[in-house]
Amino acid sequence: MSTCAIPEGSLFDMTVQMFNRAADCLHLDEGYRKIMTTCQRELVVNFPVVMDDGRIEVFTGYRVQHNTSRGPAKGGIRFHPHVSLDDVRALAMLMTFKCAVVKIPYGGAKGGVTCHPASLSRRELERLTRRYASEISILLGPEEDIPAPDVGTNARVMAWLMDTYSMHRGYTVPGVVTGKPLEVGGSAGREEATGRGVFVTILEACRVKGIDIKNARAAVQGTGNVGGTVARLLQQEGCRVVALSKSDGGVYNPHGLDVNDVLTYVQQNRTLQGYPQGEAISNCDLLELDCNILVPAAIENQLLAGNAPRIKAQIVAEGANGPTTPEADAILTDRGILVIPDILCNAGGVTVSYFEWVQSRDAYFWTEREVNARLKRIMTDSFQEVLHTAQKYNVSMRQAAYILAIERVRAAYELRGIYP
Ligand code: NAD
Fold first, then answer.
1. Residue 56, SS3?
2. Which of 130, 251, 349, 363 is 20 to 30 Å apart from 382, CA to CA?
3. In whole angstroms, how large is the CA radius of gyration of the chain?
4. Per-residue pLDDT reduced to its tens digit, 129-175
5. What is the torsional sign of CA 78, 297, 145, 416?
6. Which of the residues are catalytic?
7. Which ligand 1 atom sits nearest the alpha carbon of residue 228?
8. How far is it between the farthest Cα atoms of the chain?
9. pLDDT tens by residue, 331-342
10. Does residue 214 sit in helix, strand or coil?
11. pTM: predicted TM-score of the whole model, two decimal places
12. 158 CA to middle of ligand 1, Å?
């Protein structure tokens, strides 16, 4: 088996390329192209944190609002060693189009801190989060910009963000972040919403491809919030999950893994190395496994021109943001592989974030059953809309998703006008 190749460009350049392919189909006006390929606001913050041993470290963080024509800025916060301004810009842009695809009334944003969260103590992580929240609070607010969890952050980090913002205000503002713990205004179903949304789109894609999920095999890259949830739901539906991975490698068992057992092992050991019920596999080799469904649910730049010709899955469900480069996307599409694009596939997270925001504003909470039913309807309807658009324009699902999104952002500008 092979090793992964080098990606073909920056994530932002690649996202713009994806955008341009759809914009070409629409003969999009040059002015709107300029607007939609530029970020509206960008904040870079360098801030000190006192570490447990008394040393002072300076960290760099970002918050980028790509576009707010359809509503307040919305997007996750990433804590990861590779966080850069370029990536945050790209991820913010993806958020604008993601919200538009599922018709959620938000614009797009993203934030992050370049750090290695696993190497920080709980108190260091809290101090870093609070200081970062304080630095970017000039942009935040329930009507302005609403963060959520992403790679390396979770409900607890969101609670610290909400608390820091609230302390500045002098009263509790639950609507300033989503993905909070239930105890402080979170929504039932938010924790697993992204994975559940990915799962719903996989079921729809299986219908298109004539695949019976009960006889299907899936490989999932990532065992975090998204990957772990998708793997569990697939297994519950009767699908055999043959591989799972973490950043330092994965595990493969052609007869199917016990997903809950794998996730418990990860929780206890923070690695999959040494997991006894399967053989070790690299993240790159996992992508090329013989399976029906491949779910990249870790980070960007995984499916590249180098490995796309060797992908064996019939469905690629982009749980992660930006896992496929434009060259790889074209190769997969030519090979008849159904790629469910990130801006559709993983939109379940922002959808239930929106539900959480609505519930926070009403101070009235829905049951998990209600949340899941509404999520399922939005994801199914959105999948069908993207599919019909793909058939209408004779383009890939990704181009179709961008076409719908671009039309909706353009409509917002046309109706609102360009100030002044
Ligand atoms: P997470 O931090 O919970 O999990 C990330 C997983 O990716 C972990 O298993 C980690 O070990 C693995 N990973 C990290 N670096 C890796 C590398 N270099 N190679 C292979 N694996 C690596 O994060 P998450 O929330 O599950 O997010 C995963 C992806 O889904 C990201 O692309 C994120 O932007 C996207 N996403 C998340 C949400 C959400 O609600 N959490 C919503 C939409 C999209």
1. strand
2. 363
3. 20
4. 999 999 999 999 999 999 999 999 999 999 999 999 999 999 999 99
5. positive
6. 110
7. 26
8. 64
9. 999 999 999 999
10. helix
11. 0.96
12. 16
